[in-house]
Amino acid sequence: MKSLFAPLIASLAMATTVLAAWPINDICPVDAKAARPIYRMKTADGPVAFCCMDCLTAFEKSPGKYPVKKKDAAK
Ligand SMILES: [Zn+2]
Fold first, then answer.
1. Where would I find the beta strands (DSSP E) of the chain?
2. How far is ligand 1, taken at its centre, from the CA of residue 4, in Å?
């Protein structure tokens, strides 16, 4: 019976990881559209989100070209 619980525990652990890796921005640094957390990449500052896979790839190639606008933490 133990094996039934393993997938549940695994999905809970994954959900926790997703929350911990929530992006530092909500605007795509490449084209200033609304970023979607499903397209994200780890950077030195934290996870950065993009609006699409193309922007993620562009950022990955030259991260210095696209400054990331962080969310306003005070709000
Ligand atoms: Zn974009």
1. 36-42, 47-50
2. 40
Q: How far apart are the CA of 61 and the centre of ligand 1, in A?
A: 14
- Rounded to two decimals, what is the model's pTM? 0.69
Distance from Cα 49 to the centre of ligand 1, integer Å: 9
The residue to which tokens 């990955």 are assigned:
60
Hey, how many other C-beta atoms are within 10 angstroms of the C-beta on 18?
13
Q: What is the pLDDT along the chain (75 residues), one digit of tens a residue?
A: 566 677 766 666 666 555 557 899 999 999 999 999 999 999 998 999 999 999 999 999 999 999 999 997 655
Give the separation between CA 21 and CA 24, rounded to whole angstroms: 9
41: β partners: 48
